[in-house]
Design goal:
seven-stranded mixed sheet, Immunoglobulin-like, alpha+beta, five-stranded antiparallel sheet
Length: 436
């Protein structure tokens, strides 16, 4: 009776969409469920192995999750803008640290495209979650309008194989492990209580007013795990094969949390500037790594973040794969003429950025922003002016004239030298202060 009531609510929600379609044959259950792990910790689910001759207008899922959640904390956000998903799930059971919920998805249009069906993002507590087990039932328009024949079980849920997207076999997730958030003062740290080995775990950091994050550590029995700063208080780390403890410390605004950046260092003001504006963060633990080289992907990610991380069409660079931490930034930079890539068509996101490349990128970014580009410095006064590449000459002259880039010891521009993180922070500080 309970399952019948859940189905009735599901059908009612679908009827509210005003669907009136001719009856179709009943659907077979999907052959497998694929999940794709996003760079920000999101989890996208899809169903595959459907009969392409059939048309799906409704899906019921039964997901077994590692961890204890309320039904309202679990959600499925449709990939199709026309699809409808009731807020929250419906609790089936909780036992042994596991939660089983039912989720529903309907649409006035076909949900599947051939033998595949994109479901959308699966979250618990607002973070991406990978189910331990998944059952599915598919509905055509006749199922949704008329329900099952009298005396028959209204829903026949069937197990579907869970696999990583792009893999031919089942996903090897390892075991589920606990995530413990240690108490912290002057801010909050949130994450799901469990995750699977290899899963990208999302977490949220929120300082109290007047404070900012000082340090964030993901600790295991064998050491620490690197967490990546995604900006806007969002972080992500890969779940190791064991339990982890999350530790966060918050410090008053104006203090830097890095052991390798001292008050007397020439780059201290620049690091403080970019850190407090969420342009650049640490590299793990309590380190900024000021003398480490900066990559091309890092620079465009910083500028993309400054713009509010807008979406853009794929750039077409063969070495910029989907789902990487820099992917969206490179797409945006290419679409807006901020980057052009190398002559062989690559972008080189992991390549160390040179000083003249950084000048060229900032010049194009300033042009895209409508900034004043009339300033022009005389490069001839530098000992290595002849080493400036032709493509970067105008940009380097502008950067020198604007005071964004200055010379080094020996009256050198060092155009093909790498830009360290300290240098990048200094150049970005000057750029923002003078032009934005």
């Amino acid at each position: 009776m309970k399952r019948h009531n859940r189905l009735t609510a599901f059908l009612l929600a679908f009827c509210l969409l005003g669907l009136c379609l001719p009856p179709l044959a009943a659907q077979a259950a999907a052959g497998w469920a694929s999940f794709r792990q996003e760079a920000d910790g999101g989890v996208s689910l899809s169903l595959g192995g459907l009969d392409p001759a059939q048309v799906v207008y409704g899906v019921q899922l039964e997901a077994t999750l590692d961890g204890v959640y309320t039904a309202e904390q679990v959600a499925l956000s449709p990939a199709d803008s026309a699809a409808y998903s009731p807020a929250g799930g419906r609790l089936v059971s909780q036992s042994g640290g596991k939660t089983v919920v039912e989720l529903y998805l309907t649409s006035p249009y076909a949900l599947n495209h051939g033998d595949a069906l994109a479901l959308g993002q699966l979250t618990a507590n607002g973070f991406g979650i990978i189910p331990e087990r998944l059952k599915a039932a598919l509905f055509d328009s006749d199922d949704l309008q008329n329900g099952p024949p009298a005396g028959q079980d209204p829903v026949a849920l069937r197990d579907v194989e869970l696999r990583r997207e792009g893999e031919s076999g089942g996903a090897s997730l390892g075991g589920g492990h606990s995530i413990r958030v240690e108490p912290c003062e002057h801010g909050t740290l949130r994450a799901n209580p469990t995750a699977w080995k290899g899963q990208l775990v999302g977490l949220a950091v929120e300082p109290e007013p007047g404070y900012r994050l000082g340090a964030l550590n993901v600790r295991t029995a064998g050491g620490t795990v690197h967490a990546t700063d995604l900006g806007a208080g969002r972080w992500v780390f890969p779940m190791p094969d064991g339990d982890v403890a999350l530790e966060a410390s918050f410090v008053p605004m104006g203090e830097l949390p890095f052991d390798d950046v001292k008050a007397g260092d020439w780059f201290y003001p620049a690091v403080q500037f970019v850190y407090e504006r969420n342009m650049m963060g640490g590299t793990g633990g309590r380190f900024f790594s000021p003398h480490t080289a900066t990559s091309r992907g890092m620079i465009v990610t910083i500028l993309h973040r400054q713009e509010g991380e807008p979406q853009a069409e794929p750039s077409g660079f063969p070495d910029v794969a989907s789902g990487q931490w820099y992917t969206g930034a490179v797409h945006w930079a290419a679409a807006n003429g901020v980057v052009n890539g190398y002559s062989d068509g690559r972008f080189g996101p992991s390549d160390v950025i040179t000083r003249e490349q950084m000048a060229a990128i900032l010049y194009r970014y300033a042009k895209q922003k409508g900034c004043d580009l009339t300033a022009s410095g005389n490069l001839e006064g530098f000992a290595d002016a002849a080493q400036v590449s032709g493509y970067a000459a105008e940009a380097m002259a502008w950067a020198v004239g604007q005071g964004v880039i200055t010379g080094k010891d020996g009256n050198r521009l060092d155009p093909k030298g790498s830009a360290s993180r300290a240098e990048a922070a200094t150049i970005l500080m000057r750029f923002v202060e003078k032009l934005l």
